[in-house]
Specification:
Distance between the termini of chain B: 43 Å
Radius of gyration of chain A: 24 Å
Distance between the termini of chain A: 6 Å
Strand content of chain A: under 5%
Helix content of chain A: over 70%
Structural class of chain A: mainly alpha
Order of helices and strands of chain A: HHHHHHHHHHHHHHH
Shape of chain B: globular
Number of strands of chain A: 0
Shape of chain A: globular
Oligomer: heterodimer
Chain lengths: ~325, ~625
């Protein structure tokens, strides 16, 4: 297992390096003058030359890439042209927002979707199954920004039960101190995820219920509740485990819509804005982070698989 | 230099002067009892929080949010531009008295009123000189720098006394132009900043051998202050940035962009703050801002808490909700900045440049721009047509009567006639081609080959519904004249990167038509002269326009005597409006929302805000 983890980590480093090469290369393939995009269309030649020199843009691309890697090794993700602060500090300020919102949405979705999927499987073809299936399809096919706007229109503007924007405190603790403001953004993320997870859980549970060992358990007189909790849950949850592992990068990116609509500055929105505004250091820094988290999520999912299913072995 | 203000970001909120019709400053609150205190909340533009505090700001950080909404609240410019909605200097609110020009307009003498820094020192002539010294040594870092312009055209300065500074110019200049375009670039800085580290005690006016007096020293001072300006979290507590002369001091700048100001107790100006606090709120999108606007409280004041936006804006896509906002109780103000809007033909493009250089073609193309129709259909009725680079709206003393007259009104038949009469075979809904090449008056013109078609690619920013609608309409109208336009939606950064001055042989000259989706706003150069956009080789002349006759008229606007200046400006404006160095399109306006019991808000033609004038009523 240890050798497997080490091998996977080495692979992850290569993958992340590959991502940086591609992103860096694509950035430099964009036609036009970066300094002009940053300094404005009326920048003087002197200002453009000074900018190019300060950012190392007057060096060959390969040298610029090596410089970037050198800084990366020292934990320096770069400095934002537009936001006048380091990418590290931007991420440090914004990541807690994402972890809180997306993490809460993920956990709540799992808490709801796992029993819901099992219940649907256990009552396959009945009213509950059809109703939840219809709701899941409706939510899953609904763009998240539309769902967010509906929740604002209904619960913030019409009923005025919750604020229209997420918590505005600049710290993790401050955000937790404003639970009412958390409701709508977390609810949006939860509903979307419940729709996805419950479908996977239902399908997996239906497969499990058809297994011989379930039939044996029933023949031995085990109560249905015990069968579902002890046998179906553990064997079905494996499929969702993979999903959750792969959803980890979503902490950085999936919150984009929620951040946009509910006024919560987060890494996803910063990434998008950096791409639109040609803020290359931010774009590259967050790309590296997403690459690392994606590789880590995939690895964690594999390890969780082994922990949940004793038949799985990695050598 | 004038600044191009983004349509989405623009706008906005405080920018502007009242439109001729429906215009409106916010209610004066007559009859209601003013109350002291309270917190006013101001909506920042999406994802544009304040990020730079040092007034000597480079192009990378130059934005309305950093200058007009942040720095000028703390550090007053020498002159305050925008007088009750009019695009003129507000001398009562300025540190400097009206400048006096002498020696054939080659010497400017400025006397300063008695303003003080919060460290107790007087705002003095030396502080103005400190700014000029820093600028002269760090031109590449000054967003508004134009070679030959300020501070190059100031050969020397002399502090005649604590309250009087004299500038020696390198030539005679139009006094109005110099006051509005060059003196507008001056922000006095406290001598306490004239240092290169925090280790030593802050210098004072009596300190000898201040570093800014040498070029090397001024570079070191700039480097030190620029480094200090990178510590955003330390702004409020910084011994540098806490020395202010403006009506406010910064109490806090949170990492996500919330800026909290409290009144500067040492402020010596006539407009002392009545609010207890002024807070600028960051937003991630116009949608988020509008949600808070509709869900929040429409009344503010000392006892009010909860979500609210005291002064906000309505996103263009939500303009139809105007009646709903009114019924909610918000005061609504239509605003338009002092500027003009246009899109760019690339005169040096090797393929279509020869066609674009023909005046008759530009006239024909301008006939296809349905400005009033676009305002009605795509701008939510909020906008003003552009007929001249010296705009008629908002009302101003610079525009002549011709500025309100469209020289090329929307007319597809007129466009077709112009093409036909110049040797083109017009094929409506097909491709119009040159049938009569040559340089005679009735021919297609120099560089246009027989059989060449009218096909263009027009690049514009995505995510701007008004621009998208307008350009699609233009494409449709042009097709009726046999002009084929391929629309290319890109990011604003791509446009900024792509549209640049170029030689015809350079790969960078491949762009044909480009629309920034934003206006040219006369800020921080406030005089509507054209030396920065239409003069040959000007930094803002990104589309390679060159006309010696127009150049001559432009130079006259900057060099004319005070008496001859209005005629010189009219001559330039009338030539430019007919010569079409760009294609004119409508300038968007902004709908500003104000809480029902907040008063004192006055739109500013150049985009500044003055929250010290705002107050709540009971």
């Amino acid at each position: 297992m240890t050798r497997y983890v080490i091998r996977r980590m080495a692979q992850a480093v290569i993958v992340v390096l590959g991502v940086t090469v591609i992103t860096f290369g694509l950035q430099h393939l964009i036609p036009g003058n970066l300094a002009r995009a940053i300094l404005g269309p009326r920048a003087s030649r002197t200002a453009i030359a000074a900018f190019d020199q300060a950012q190392g843009l007057n060096h060959p691309v390969a040298v610029q890439y090596l410089d970037f890697l050198g800084r990366l090794v020292h934990g320096n993700l770069g400095y934002s042209y537009r936001l006048n602060q380091s990418v590290d500090s931007l991420i440090a300020h914004q990541l807690p927002n994402d972890v809180l919102l997306v993490g809460a949405g993920l956990v709540l979705a799992l808490v709801i979707a796992i029993p819901l999927g099992i219940a649907q499987a256990a009552r396959r073809g009945r009213v509950l199954d059809h109703t939840v299936t219809a709701a899941a399809f409706a939510l899953y096919s609904m763009p998240s920004y539309w769902l967010a706007l509906l929740l604002i229109a209904g619960l913030a503007i019409a009923v005025r039960a919750f604020p229209a924007e997420g918590p505005q405190a600049p710290s993790f603790g401050g955000m937790l101190a404003d639970p009412r403001a958390l409701v709508l953004p977390v609810l949006t993320l939860t509903l979307i995820n419940v729709a996805l997870f419950s479908r996977y859980m239902r399908a997996a549970a239906i497969d499990t219920l058809a297994q011989d060992y379930i039939r044996v358990a029933r023949a031995k007189g085990a109560p249905e509740r015990v069968i579902l909790a002890r046998h179906v849950l553990r064997n079905s949850v494996l499929s969702v485990t993979t999903l959750v592992g792969l959803a980890l990068p979503a902490v950085l990116t999936a919150g984009l819509v929620v951040e946009n609509v509910f006024n919560v500055p987060g890494v996803g929105l910063t990434y998008y804005t950096a791409a639109v505004n040609a803020d290359y250091p931010v774009e590259l820094g967050i790309t590296v982070l997403v690459g690392v988290v994606t590789a880590a999520g995939s690895l964690l999912a594999d390890i969780a698989y082994a922990a949940l299913d004793p038949r799985v072995r990695y050598d | 230099m004038a600044v191009r203000s983004r349509l989405m970001s623009l706008a906005v909120v405080a920018a502007t002067a009242a439109l001729a019709a429906g215009c409106s400053t916010a209610s004066s609150g007559a009859g209601a009892k003013p109350v002291s205190g309270g917190t006013a909340y101001f909506a920042e533009q999406p994802l544009q929080p304040p990020t730079y505090i040092f007034p000597l700001i480079s192009g990378a950080n130059f934005s309305t949010e950093n200058t007009a909404y942040f720095q000028t609240l703390l550090y007053l410019p020498l002159y305050w531009y925008g007088d009750g909605g009019k695009p003129s200097v507000d001398y009562p609110l300025s540190i400097g008295n009206a400048p006096v020009y002498s020696h054939h307009d080659t010497v400017v003498t400025i006397t300063l009123k008695h303003y003080t820094w919060s460290d107790g020192e007087r705002v003095s002539a030396r502080d103005v000189g400190f700014w000029i010294n820093l600028l002269k040594a760090n031109k590449a870092d000054w967003a508004s720098y134009v070679p030959g312009g300020f501070p190059d055209n100031v050969t020397s300065w002399q502090a005649v006394s604590d309250s009087t500074i004299r500038l020696q110019l390198d030539a005679s200049y139009n006094p109005t132009w110099f006051t509005y375009n060059e003196l507008s670039q001056i922000t006095p800085l406290p001598i306490a900043w004239d240092r290169t580290s925090l280790a030593a005690a802050a210098p004072g006016p009596a300190t000898a051998h201040l570093p800014d007096t040498t070029s090397k020293g001024a570079v070191a001072v700039y480097d030190f202050l620029n480094a200090q300006a990178k510590d955003l979290s330390g702004y409020a507590s910084s011994p540098i940035w806490s020395v202010v002369d403006g009506p406010w001091r910064l109490a806090n700048l949170a990492s996500e962009g919330t800026a909290t100001f409290v009144p500067n107790a040492h402020y010596a100006g006539p407009d002392k703050a009545r609010l207890a606090r002024f807070v600028e709120l960051p937003f991630t999108s116009t949608t988020a801002e509008y949600s808070v606007l509709t869900a929040g409280s429409v009344r503010g004041g000392p006892e009010t808490s909860g979500q609210q936006i005291s002064v906000g804006y309505v996103p263009p896509t939500d303009l139809p909700q105007r009646p709903a906002l009114q019924s909610q109780g918000y005061q609504l103000v239509d605003d338009v900045t002092f500027g003009f809007d246009y899109f760019e033909p690339n005169f040096n493009n090797p393929k279509v440049g020869p066609i674009l250089r023909q005046l008759y073609f530009r006239q024909a193309f301008q006939h296809l721009v349905d400005q009033t129709g676009w305002i009605r259909a795509y701008y939510g009725g909020l906008g003003v047509p552009t007929y001249s680079p010296v705009p008629a709206s908002p009302a101003n003393p610079y525009a002549d009567t011709l500025a309100s007259v469209n020289p090329y009104p929307f007319s597809v038949p007129a466009a077709k006639n112009l093409l036909t009469s110049h040797g083109w075979k017009v094929v409506p809904n097909g491709l119009t081609t040159c049938a009569r090449p040559g340089t005679a008056p009735a021919d297609c013109g120099a560089g246009v080959a027989k059989g060449e078609g009218l096909q263009f690619t027009l690049m514009y920013p995505s995510g701007m519904p008004a621009t998208d609608g307008s350009m699609t309409d233009l494409q449709s109208d042009a097709r009726q004249a046999g002009i084929q336009i391929s629309l290319d939606q890109v990011t604003t950064a791509t446009i900024d990167q792509t549209i640049e001055p170029c030689q015809a042989s350079a790969p960078a000259c491949s762009w044909e038509l480009g629309n920034y989706g934003s206006s040219w706003v006369f800020e921080p150069d406030h005089y509507p002269s054209g030396e920065e956009i239409f003069q040959t080789g000007a930094l803002g002349n990104v589309n390679n326009y060159s006309d010696p006759a127009v150049d001559k008229l432009i130079i006259a606007t900057t060099r004319a005597s005070a008496g001859a200046a209005p005629a010189a400006l009219n001559a330039y404006a009338d030539a430019a409006r007919q010569q079409l160095p760009d294609f004119w399109q409508p300038s968007p306006a902004t709908l500003v929302t104000i809480q029902s019991n907040l008063h004192g808000f006055t739109p500013n033609a150049y985009g500044f805000i003055s929250p010290q004038e705002w107050y709540f009523t009971q």
